[in-house]
Write a structure and sequence with these properties.
The chain is of the alpha/beta class and 260 residues long. The chain has one domain: P-loop containing nucleotide triphosphate hydrolases (Rossmann fold, 3-Layer(aba) Sandwich), CATH 3.40.50.300. 31% of the residues lie in helices and 21% in strands. A 10-stranded mixed sheet has the order 3-2-4-5-1-6-7-8-9-10, sandwiched between helices. Strand 8 and strand 9 form a beta hairpin. The protein is globular. The protein starts with 18 loop residues before the first strand and ends with a strand.
């Protein structure tokens, strides 16, 4: 997969069978990583993408992807992209009006005896609906909301265990965004122990400036493959970044220069 920056090969870390965990903070949101990975994967035709969103609706993703040169409707027509509105699926009663947007998977019944099983089945169906000729990439935005929508930690843990087993079986790449400020310690530790690569996005200790938005630390996860080519990019020093209208500008610490 293409790199989103010479200094941070994030897209190459979302390869089939890998699990990239992105932890962010309220003061330093990490959604831009998902946008860059999604855009790079669709543009380069390296993966068929399923996006499961708990936080933002499809219109938000359409608008940001458009700035990155990606028209999601086009890829949906090619069966290269599927959007799953997970928040509505869990919270919307079956009798509520359905979205007319063909990209949105219809909501599930929140009164089901096992709340997350229908969502899991929907994700399986979405993965099977995309073009089978290319590898698959499954992306989740702010999954800390899942912990608040489903109070049972045991149920949430079972959901992730089932998803990891599905990843092992189907071989898709997995990218998950999780807030360190909104998630329970148990779930933070659980996902961290299951990833192959870990990105942590933090605000600057000195506060946000006009030149730098925050910094990213990249480390191998517990399940990383030491001889994997993409894992040689692990950095010993955090990389700073600045967000712009067109994406992220990457800045080596201690320099004033940036790279697109």
């Amino acid at each position: 997969m293409a790199l989103i920056a010479n200094s941070l090969p994030v897209a190459s870390l979302a390869e089939p069978g890998h699990f990239l965990l992105v932890n962010d903070r309220i003061a330093a949101p990490g959604e831009f990583i998902l946008h860059h990975v999604l855009a790079a994967s669709l543009k380069d035709s390296t993966a068929e993408c399923v996006l499961v969103s708990f936080l933002e609706r499809l219109d938000h993703w359409k608008a940001i992807q458009s700035k990155l040169g990606v028209t999601l409707e086009t890829y949906a027509t090619r069966k290269s992209f599927v959007f799953v509105d997970a928040f509505s699926q869990i919270t919307m009663p079956p009798s509520s009006p359905r979205s007319q947007d063909p990209l949105v998977v219809p909501p599930i019944d929140p009164e089901a005896s096992v709340p997350l099983r229908p969502l899991f089945d929907t994700i399986v169906g979405a993965l099977r609906s995309v073009d089978p000729e290319l590898p698959k990439l499954l992306l989740f935005d702010e999954v800390s909301l899942l912990e608040w929508l489903v109070p049972s930690q045991a149920e949430v843990t079972r959901f992730w265990r089932a998803l990891f087993a599905l990843k092992q079986k189907m071989g898709f790449g997995l990218v998950v965004l999780q807030s360190l400020d909104a998630s329970h310690n148990h779930m933070i530790e659980f996902l961290l122990s299951s990833c192959t690569m870990h990105l942590e996005i933090s605000p600057l200790a000195s506060g946000r400036s006009s030149a730098v938005t925050g910094e990213i630390a990249m480390q191998r996860g517990p399940l990383s493959v030491s001889d994997g080519p993409s894992y040689k990019a692990v950095r010993k020093q955090a990389l700073q970044y600045r967000l712009t209208e067109s994406g992220a500008v990457w800045i080596e610490r201690g320099t004033g220069g940036g790279m697109l």
